[in-house]
Design goal:
Chains A, B, C, D: It comes from Parasedimentitalea denitrificans. Chains A, B, C, D: Residues 161-314, 317-380 form the Malonyl-CoA decarboxylase C-terminal domain. Chains A, B, C, D: This is Decarboxylase. 4 copies of one chain form a homotetramer. In chain A, helix 7 crosses helix 9 (144-157). Chain A is built from 19 helices and 8 strands. The longest helix of chain A has 18 residues, at 122-139. In chain A, helix 13 links the parallel strand 4 and strand 5. The first copy, chain A, has 415 residues and is α+β, with helices and mostly antiparallel strands. Chain A has helices at 3-15, 29-38, 42-57, 61-74, 79-91, 95-105, 108-116, 122-139, 144-157, 174-183, 192-199, 234-238, 271-285, 301-307, 317-330, 341-348, 364-370, 384-394, 401-414; strands at residues 164-167, 204-210, 220-227, 252-260, 291-294, 296-297, 352-357, 374-378. Chain A folds into 2 domains: 2-157, Butyryl-CoA Dehydrogenase, subunit A, domain 3 (Up-down Bundle), CATH 1.20.140; 163-414, Aminopeptidase. The first copy, chain A, is elongated. In chain A, the strands form 2 sheets. A 5-stranded mixed beta sheet of chain A has the order 1-2-3-4-5, sandwiched between helices. A 3-stranded antiparallel beta sheet of chain A has the order 6-8-7. Chains A and D meet through helix 10 and helix 11 of A and helix 10 and helix 11 of D.
Chain lengths: 415, 415, 415, 415
């Protein structure tokens, strides 16, 4: 071996240590990936894929970093090849030239992911893999290109047409309910009894999206309360001793918690489809429902107040409502979108800001993020497309007269 | 409007007539596709997607051609943009530059297909769409680039990890069995009684791959006979009056018919995985099974004899066996692969040529294509990887001594 | 052994030959039944029960007769014991005395049937057993007491609360559809294509009752056509080339065929519950349905004309309608119930005679039994209870004015 | 109305107060029952049955007592009628006479229960009804005859052939698991985490019998631990921090808890069938299992010691083992059966007393009932029938040499 090769080898091994070390069968994960990509695939492919997934699972975080480094450096696109194929295609846009272009314009790590995905259960592991990757990219931003590829693939695999909406209730399998407890991100579920209180009563519903390849893993779920009138606090909704009503007697469906479950599917949006589907299904089942509304946190309020050096007296309830209204209608990110992430989500879906409430979430988290304030976003079916359009084209925030008045009052105080 | 614009418009309308005409809602499918691609998507996307799919379904073949022409000409890659993005990425391989490259290196028609696929049931329609397209490309080869994109997407969507193997038996839904009758491509099923004879007896099995988004459409299926010893004719296997045996008494599983069901999934290979999975499942269920073998047609035999000006006396059974053996071992395509398509499939899977039989398929089709000869390909579990490797690397055809001897005898006659 | 015992033995063996002969394990079915009844049961009971059921299945008709003879003669009630237990209970109606009475007032063959029923799949076999028995009782009326016991048990086991209503459609398992073809008793199904025509179109429905212990055996099923208006002939309903309508566009549900499937469940009525359940389910699914009506054969018409020496010109359609109306309203059995069995069923359910049609069933069977005439029985929901009550108490036949007028016209002709 | 009738009425109303009072629709439950029994039934029967069940559910305990009093006094057998029918049958054992006898020898309350059972969900309510009744019979023993009838019916309805064995695991519906927590009668389940520890690990199993008419209600369930060797304490089995093993590595299946769930099914034995079925299913799934054994409480030990004025030093472990062994082998009820109810159950099933352990159940309950002692009953497959036979005929208790020796040692101490 030449000196140069030797040197390169040494560098390689340092950089990809962990990914280049042979396992008990004498093959490193890098070699296995190379085998999998070069195999005409199907006969030995599944064995190789399983081997790689098993190896990955056994890796520590440094080894994983090395593995993703390999994907970044060696299984990306090769600009020269792309250039050359593109030139050929430009000169003669034939099928063969297009095929050659396609082959080189897509990085090989995408094909690797597809080949890994042959193994039963692989989809879930690939989603876990991206979860690791997203964590690693914070300190190793050069790995982000791999994430773009995985995200691209997952957006295709987790396309709405492949998802299944399933009710989640007290008859659901315990292993799925277990995950609901863990994944609930808005109003923590403290016990199985707490969970039962959100699933079993006649005036409660929960729905989630599932993917057939990960049937026991919810992707996203929404908790719904069926009420008479629009509620102004989550304490009332989740009170232990509250009186249930019959589902048929409700006129309002309140989406009071929406949680994404899979960190490895970050950036692949399901929430919009979920809400629309649930609205459609509930309307059909319960024709008395007239109002579809959220009871949502305002997670960015206090952070924004701090950042903008504004004051707000947490004991003045009316003041908090004004401040919150003002924030929701006027606080923006640099790109003009609403500052508040939950506002971005619902306004982007075509909802409007319907009402704000003080002392609506008195949990530690609720007090810390918004001094207890919450907001109802209203899904007014006939207006959704129009709201969405205004928001998408002009970033216009639609609000009820009441909220607009509150916001105006806040602005007049400021001046 | 300028004269030029007017002219272009006229040309456009001629070329894309059918795709550019407004429907009863005043929008052409081209406009709808454009809307769907430009929409931030989710709110109105599903309505648009459904509209497009409905419009497509109502089109005649000329309109479909125009639609695919639009996809070819307007929703492909734009070389200039790719060039520019690639240059940026080469200069600075940042995440942002990579993302921009990805966005332009993939033609927009791929994104269109993904957005169409939001609608429940869309997957099946997209598969149907590709079936139409494949038919049209014969006369309109310029459309083939669209097919490459659909095939690329489908290979990802119909990845082995997403497929479900299901037994198909006399308890299966009638609508699926109906399709088995239609899709059987090797030994036609003449009636429901004929079908019952292949599904209900204890010594018969059938398995198919299904995709969760098309649950009532088999993708591929294989029919299996459980026998004592390796059978030498399909008449014996399918005889009405044959004696059944108990499944536990069988030592051999015979794959006597494999049929791809979806013309729109042409080129996406399932057969290999199917056979391997069925071998694994049957081995576990019936430990007495020792031999896994096909009873396969030799569809190219007589065509090859004609093409090579060879003669064969159809009444000389021994001669037919020699000729068939010689053909299977030596007849090649220009690229060195076996001439016979079924041979290519099974040898590529790692099977070997085990035996040839005369008077094994006396149907009109069997007599026409191979003078009634058939072949057993043997899936010898310990040898599969090795056979496959030899075939993949050196296109070496592995055969039993008996078949090799027959082939040699044929060659000696020739000289 | 004494001469008498010997003689008795001989007689016994002659009478119960077949039931008293040892099988290959050296036990006769009589001994096995005795063992099963005397066993404290559970440990060896299931083995014994299976053994008995297997032995029964292998019997020829003479052996079965002997077996039922044994059940008749040896496993019935013993009047002396009943008398004695009843006297004790009358003297002291204690729990213990009641229990003793219960034990002897029920024949041991009922307990035998319950113990046989421990075995998975036994229920179906016991139903088959009663089918055999019903056939044998025609020539051996002394066996009818055994039938009364089985019927009593089956009425309890096949209680409405244990039955499951299931739609039968083109997605149903083929083995169940196979049975629908066989069991259809009103308008024969000639082929799978014929069956498909009754199940697959959007304006056709079929429903059956199933029992969880016999999940692949329909007990009774009804075929329904969704129509606009009330149809007057079965040819129209079953025509191959008819135009389908959307289910939502129908205003009428026509029950055009009801078939009992299990001869062994004769006398256990399901039809009434079935129709009521189907009316309820269809009303909920399709709120546009306003009329629930049958299109029924008149199986007893021509037989009754012959028996009563009446004439009817089969070519005079108006005359046939009058005759049929008269028959339906006036022809009675000795006990005052309608002569026509189908009339008895529907009138007993609370339906009324709505219309009669000539040339409504031109099949050989239809012409033979009623010169092609058919009748609509109307299930007029608000009137069902009242109709039923009038029929149950006064055997009053309710009919529409039109049918009443036809009947009156027929009577005026007669005089 | 005559004075007498009036008097009777008064008495009647006093005795059946609650059952004879009209409800809001003006009918008492007694009148409704009478209607249901006299109706030819099917048309209005289901409405009546539902009405009765609803009325019953709304009753307080006094009203329920009145209702059962009515069933006792008015819907029992009528001796005169039975006598007369029996006399006719004895004189002429015809079918008609037998049918008449059957009709009067069965009390009408049995038919009432069958007619109530038409309503979906009624079976569960009837089981609840018997639960109430069993409670009432303690103070009102005259009602016990009604219980005998319900028990007779339930034994037929809950026949082994109608039951379904289902695994209960962490994928089971939460509402069923909820009931497992409630119904566990041997070793209390303290939380969902405790439950998870008994269901989720690879070396744990749970199985229950279900009836199709009560699909979300377990009838009985057994918890199983898969172990290496026979465990001697329940603390070890249920320890939080124990090491799990792979199911394939286990050689022993330990039935450590069997709980009947339905008080209303008391006296209808499922346990024996359950254990046998589970042994069969586990043997098939896990061929390495060689030993099937219980780890059972000895609930009667300390009570018996007290009753017989025996002493036992709870701190002397060896002494406890001797005492327990002696008790299990020698303590008898008046009728000769074992004094210990759990011993009766397992010995009756054909198990043998395999080992006794001190300090095996240190829960409060375990210490109170048996000073912490437990016992293994061994299900030795080849010996089960023989053990059962010896026990059933001679009440012989089979034990291992070790336990016999312990018992002998105890007896020698006594003398």
């Amino acid at each position: 071996m030449s000196f140069l090769a030797d040197l390169l080898n040494t560098v390689f091994e340092r950089r990809y240590r962990g990914a280049s070390e042979p396992d008990h069968q004498g093959r490193s994960i890098i070699e296995l990936c190379s085998d999998l990509l070069s195999s005409s695939g199907e006969v030995s492919g599944m064995v190789l894929a399983r081997h790689i997934l098993d190896s990955y699972r056994a890796m520590n975080i440094d080894e994983k970093r090395a593995f993703f480094g390999y994907l970044t450096d060696f299984l990306g696109i090769v600009p020269d090849k792309v250039n050359s194929a593109l030139a050929d295609y430009t000169a003669d846009p034939s099928k063969a030239n297009y095929q050659r272009f396609m082959a080189v314009a897509e990085p090989r790590r995408q094909e690797l992911a597809r080949r890994l995905n042959q193994v039963p259960g692989a989809t879930k592991q690939l989603v876990e893999m991206r979860k690791d990757l997203l964590q690693l990219t914070r300190e190793h931003p050069e790995l982000a290109v791999v994430d773009l590829d995985l995200r691209h693939l997952f957006a295709s695999w987790f396309n709405r047409g492949f998802l299944v909406l399933r009710p989640i209730n007290w008859e659901s399998p315990a292993d799925i309910l277990d995950k609901i407890i863990v994944y609930e991100a808005v109003h923590a579920i403290h016990s199985w009894d707490d969970l039962r209180g959100r699933l079993q009563p006649a005036d409660r519903r929960c729905f989630g999206f599932f993917h057939p390849a990960m049937p026991d893993e919810p992707l996203i779920f929404v908790e719904v309360a069926l009420t008479q009138g629009i509620p102004g606090s989550v304490q009332g909704l989740l009170a232990d001793e509250r009186d249930n009503i019959a589902a048929e007697d409700a006129d309002t469906a309140v989406f009071y918690s929406i949680s994404n479950c899979q960190a490895g599917l970050a950036g692949i949006s399901f929430g919009n489809s979920l809400i629309k589907q649930v609205v459609a299904d509930l309307s059909r089942e319960l024709p008395n429902l007239k109002t579809f509304v959220t009871l949502s946190p305002i997670p960015g309020l206090n952070r924004w107040l701090t950042e903008t050096d504004k004051q707000s007296d947490p004991s003045d309830e009316e003041q908090i409502r004004k401040t919150a209204a003002h924030y929701l209608l006027n606080a923006k990110r640099a790109n003009g979108a609403p500052y508040d992430p939950v506002a971005r989500f619902h306004l982007g879906n075509g909802a409007l800001v319907h009402a704000v409430h003080a002392r609506a979430d008195l949990s530690d988290n609720g007090l810390a993020q918004s001094s207890g304030a919450m907001v109802n976003y209203l899904y007014d079916l006939p207006l959704i497309s129009q709201n969405h359009e205004q928001f998408a084209t002009a970033q216009a925030v639609v609000a009820s007269p009441e909220v607009t008045a509150l916001s105006t009052a806040a602005e007049q105080q400021d001046t």
